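Write out a sequence, fold above all:
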Amino acid sequence: MAKMPKGLEEAADAGVALNPLVGLAKEDLIGAVGVMLKATATQPGKVIEHSKSFADDVIKIITMKSDIAPNPKDRRFADATWSQNPLFRAGMQYYLAAEKGVKNFIGDLELDELERTRAHFVAGMVIDSLAPTNTLAGNPAALKKAAETGGASLIRGLKNAYDDIVNNDMLVSQVDKRPFKIGENIACTPGAVIYRTELMELIHYQPTTEKVHETPLLIIPPQINKAYVNDLSPDKSIVRFLLGNGQQTFLISWRNPTKEHADWGLANYVDGIIEAISVICEVTGSKQVNVSGACSGGITMSAMLSKLASKGDKRVNAVSLMVCVLKPEITDSEVGSLVSEHGIELARQRSRKAGVLDGASLSRMFAWLRPNDLVWNYVVNNYLLGEDPPAFDILFWNNDATNLPAQLHSDYLDLYGNQPFAAPGTAEIAGHVVDLTKVTRDLYIVAGVTDHITPWKACYRSTQLFGSKNIEFVLSHSGHIQAMLNPPGNPKAKFYRANGKAPEAPEKWMAKAEEHAGSWWPHWAQWLKARAGAEKAAPTALGSKAHPPVGAAPGQYVFD
């Protein structure tokens, strides 16, 4: 597997988690600024102290005695001009001194930790936007490019900006979509849609081995973004890998909802999964199905598992849960500190009024949560340098966002606020009282060590929520998306796992975990094989008489 191009993993990891689904209310952002200004006004001594410190830095910069330097990992100042040209070096040092001064000042104010985190977040967004590299005059690489091309790079940059305004909902493009064609070089594993409803399509993939395991596998994707993340390019396809390991593989493809589908809630999606399980059992003749859910699809899957357990329905055998947080906490991320009850209610009202949580708006929210990586990086590349954004399959998928029905959005907000998975037997979800302690099936949980969307320690909490006696927790070396799309072949890949019962504290698990070289996929494949029954001859046709193919994979809904 080729390594992701430098700087793209952050963009690819802008997946779906609960915090961005809540959104940031402008009132909460203004409130964070107000708290900071109030603390500034009531602590004049600290203002004077830090102003003097900044003035000392400025004097050193002017007299060329400053040793302020950027972090070696800060790609904004990688051009040699920043260190070789006195004028540019002074400008960079002035900016870095201001950045350091604001950070130290906020750190020194008498605020509680929540207020301090909010202040750091808001101040960081402002400081990032003021970086000299975000302007033509302050970006030596852009100036050199303009000179080398006789201004042609600036013309291309203006064209790119115009295209984004007209064709990309005024979002700076993160990917060149032109090389990719769904069904041809993306989502191209042979298969057929064998069941279609208003809500979903169920895809049955063509086996690639002479024998398959008796117990089939159903993959449950997130409702935001398209299901073909599981069947991306051939070298990154989870579906192809599973087929190659003798798994009878099925995939749900959710429909991209519109305003008329505003009433689709978590109960509808849970029932949709249960319908799919019934179809798979009929098609394969199996009494049980293994299931795998990722991110928000994992949340929906967990609600479904609880509902089946409450009814004594044992059709689900083994469960895989990937990069999914079922018990979010405000300290999981810096963004979490900005979420308030007021913000949750405003988010609910916005989607209820529109009928959906718009996919483009959600993409914009994700981008501004990490502006250096997801906004300014592309402003420089596309507009100042006049380059096309990278052509990368993961980013192509990541930018293929879908809407979320207003009711489902509201249900997810309730999960965030009430945390019913962490309080078994106290809340009703999808027509039953949720209780994951009644879910006792073997469980395989995957998290990413550098995941900013669903932090691994937050994912680890799920080991304590289920009633399963056999829980395997695996920590992949990558971030949110790369933790999942981790096929064999990457020489830098590694994962961690530990034997025995998972302790309550993730730190204790990590202390006894062993590092393993390579992808975790083969380990997962062996885990699945042990729970997928005996082998039998692979079916020669897809679907069944009761559920014949109604169209070729990847189906219709991926194009909505």
Q: What stands out?
A: The radius of gyration is 25 Å. The domain at 191-338+404-485+518-559 is CATH 3.40.50.1820 (Rossmann fold). DSSP finds 21 helices and 17 strands in the chain. The chain has a mean pLDDT of 90.
